[in-house]
Write a structure and sequence with these properties.
Largest sheet of chain A: 8 strands, mixed
Number of helices of chain A: 14
Number of strands of chain A: 16
Radius of gyration of chain A: 27 Å
Shape of chain A: globular
Helix content of chain A: 25-40%
Oligomer: homodimer
Strand content of chain A: 15-25%
Order of helices and strands of chain A: HHEEEHEEHHEEEEHEEHHHEHHEEEHHEH
């Protein structure tokens, strides 16, 4: 049997007027007065709900429906009636209401305001609430907008591996993966770990970035992107850290840092415009209940030309700032979120790319500038958040890359395939990484990463 | 600087005629005779290459270019000349050829036929070969087609977690995830593993399926899908098994097994049609060099109404077959690939859904049929492969589900949140799983899963 969707009712209300239709969904609320009842139905297809009016005598189970707990699943047949003067543009006058599955009076998601903390304890039910309906529909649409952006531009989507034998940046705590008995991991005669008995015959970790693998595909398909999970075993219990999160990492060939920044700016504007078109109700909701500056901020972004500023100039701006910072800005030190926000919010008043960072605070694969002190890196800073995107032009010169790896004591043998790209037809290329959850936090105003991941994984938290 | 893409040259050759353009890419081959040379350039944007004609006297570095090793990166400026009588519809007459990055004479990917086994040892370079250009462009397009199919139908994309505290089906070897020292995993006073000191404070594994999590979102968004990596630590060294692979798992509410099969059929046809439209060159290549029946097979699929047959009837068909099977067909036993292929290739001559399998060979969450012997499961069988998709209507009745879990000795406490879905507004729902690599093998004719994953992870293989 096929059901009319509430989404379609809102899109084409007039064409349904006077029609008999059948809808299915879950009860958000029920109230009745004597012989007349009102049931608010949500069917999962859009943010809006459908008001259903039911009458004793018309439906056969008036008493039963009036006692139905919130959260129950029902199937309703009735006539669509336009109500141009009411709050809702139409309602459904029920001819029958069938109970598909009853809920219970102790349903944990009653019609009232719950704290986000409480809702995390019922992560399996919270997507039924307004806030999380909005968050996770926006998350889905944003993911698709990203795919659409890159695919329309001919980028090839690459599934870089999750289990890895290498440590991308020589940085970041990693999760180990094993099939061996943890109580008795096999040892060699010398008491060392005997990885030869493990599944892969060598140490295995969960990846922290797909970039190096993506570069190999950019050298074949020109423009590629990854969009997949990454992992960090950082013991950070903050609103911004999760052990498992999703990243987007495009990589473009015959391209430099300027091309890279343009791509990042275009992508971000594309995603925001897509959400403004397709998730207007959800963004309105966030703007009303989560972050009253959201729509203004997003509108400002899509209408701004992003600023660009070198790290060295940024430090000068910060030193001249007439406000105290917790961390004193100093050339050679990483920018703190307070610095980043000051730059984008106060100095530039719009998103800004800070470029050409000191080599010592950036990864080995970033392209050395002519000054030999800075590298062709860029971070995109946005209001309220700080760094949203980080990228760089990659070091395509074999000798320069090897020299840098030696400085950092990275063993070239572990990177033989990465270095091969510089041996066989090397070319200028660049890329960036976007933490998907940080983007979702930015476009929804949600302040905790636990509230934009369906089932967040953090230190000491592996529920569900 | 911006380059003309070879893809755009093929799309609008006439409009480029006589124009001076600049292209960039990698040398596929070079041959010269006296003062005239031909360079075949691939720029990663499409399967086809561009022939570049260069002349001594016109370009300044004729000798150098003629000695350039295959795989080198070059930037070429020249005039587009239509060549309607030649093999290529147009060529580029070079005014200059700049070397972006030279390759070497020992470049591992010379212009000759290499075995797939050899190419796996250079997985970082193989996407530059014709076969893997085709495979991984098809993979990218198929991934996007799947997103497009579901998003156009209003499905919400859910990122179900990869690291999990539960074992979805109580089946399948899993990878463990830990941050502890493997040589000295902390033990309790009683000598048991002290998980409290590990990152999540409890045992953690890599997921084998996102289905149960996806069901929680289907109870909020009606129709959802996952598309992400899954893991199996099976010690199977076969052409069909990988330790890390990607799965698509849609889940639909207020829907039964019939709806589920229709969705699977529609999705598969959609993806194949999308590839026929967008990857015609690649499919032609596979049809010529990998599987001569490919196009015929794919065309047949999109034009067939898929057949449907119960497992019980399927067993009857197999028993009546006038061919010997290695495994004797017997009611209650799982179908082997030989059985599956016989059914779809010989009995039905088109894709067939086999439905209503014995409960004992299927998972606990599948809906019990009225006969109490079979469950509302379906497998889609296709020629050459056997099972491509497996799905079921889910058991939405709490009492039936609990009874089944008790039979299988599954502890309801481990599934409290899954059971909650049956307590609070339960409803008919269904879903299926599609192994993405199996789909890619099917639509390309590639016979080994190692050749459709960018960097495959299998037993004792964690290279790159």
């Amino acid at each position: 049997m096929s059901y009319t969707l509430i989404k379609d009712l809102y899109a084409h209300a007039e064409s349904f007027a006077g029609q008999s239709i059948t809808v299915s969904g879950w009860v958000r609320s029920i109230r009745d007065s004597k012989s007349l009842g009102f049931l608010v139905l949500h069917d999962g297809t859009c943010f809006a709900t459908l008001q259903i009016v039911y009458e004793e005598g018309t439906i056969s189970n008036f008493q039963e429906i009036s006692r139905l707990p919130v959260g129950s699943a029902v199937i309703v047949t009735g006539e669509v009636v336009l109500t141009p003067n009411a709050k809702q543009p139409f309602e459904l006058r029920a001819a029958s209401i069938d109970i598909e599955g009853s809920s219970t009076p102790d349903y944990p998601l009653q019609k009232k305001r719950h704290s986000f903390e409480y809702l995390r304890t019922i992560a399996h039910l919270r997507p039924r609430s307004n806030t999380f309906q909005a968050v996770f529909r926006v998350r889905s649409l944003a993911a698709y907008a990203i795919h659409q952006f890159f695919q329309d531009r001919g980028f090839v989507y690459v599934h870089t591996p999750l289990i890895t034998g290498s440590d991308c940046e020589g940085a970041g705590e990693m999760f180990q993966v094993t099939t061996q008995n943890l109580a008795h991991y096999p040892l060699t005669d010398h008491g060392a770990l005997d990885y030869s008995q493990d599944f892969f015959g060598k140490p295995a970790n969960l990846t922290v970035s797909g970039q190096l693998s993506a570069e190999t595909y950019a050298a074949a398909f020109r423009n590629v992107y990854t969009f997949g999970p990454t992992f960090r075993a950082e013991n950070s219990n903050t609103p911004r850290h999760a052990a498992e999160f999703w990243m987007i990492e495009p990589e473009i060939s015959f391209a430099d840092l300027q091309d890279d920044m343009q791509l990042a700016e275009d992508m971000l504007k594309y995603v925001i415009r897509y959400l403004m078109d397709r998730a207007a109700d959800e963004l309105d909701f966030f703007n009303s209940f989560v972050d009253k500056t959201l729509l203004q901020r997003l509108t400002h972004i899509v209408n701004s030309d992003f600023a660009r500023c070198t790290y060295t100039d940024a430090i000068e701006h910060l030193k001249k700032a007439d406000r105290p910072f917790e961390y004193k800005p100093e050339w050679g030190c990483d920018l703190q979120t307070e610095h980043e926000r000051y730059l984008t919010e106060v100095v530039f008043g719009r998103p800004v790319f800070v470029t050409d960072y000191p080599k010592d605070i950036k990864a080995f694969y970033m392209r050395m500038n002519e000054d030999t002190r800075t590298v062709a890196a860029m971070d995109l800073l946005v209001a309220g958040v700080g760094e949203l995107i980080g990228g760089s032009q990659r070091e395509e010169r074999l000798d320069m890359l090897l020299a840098r790896m030696e400085e950092l004591k990275l063993d070239p043998e572990n990177y033989w395939w990465y270095l091969d790209l510089r041996r066989y037809g090397t070319n200028r290329h660049a890329g960036f990484g976007l933490g998907f959850e940080r983007l979702i936090m930015y476009v929804t105003g949600m302040a905790n990463i636990r509230d934009v991941l369906p089932f967040p994984r953090t230190v000491n938290n592996l529920d569900f």
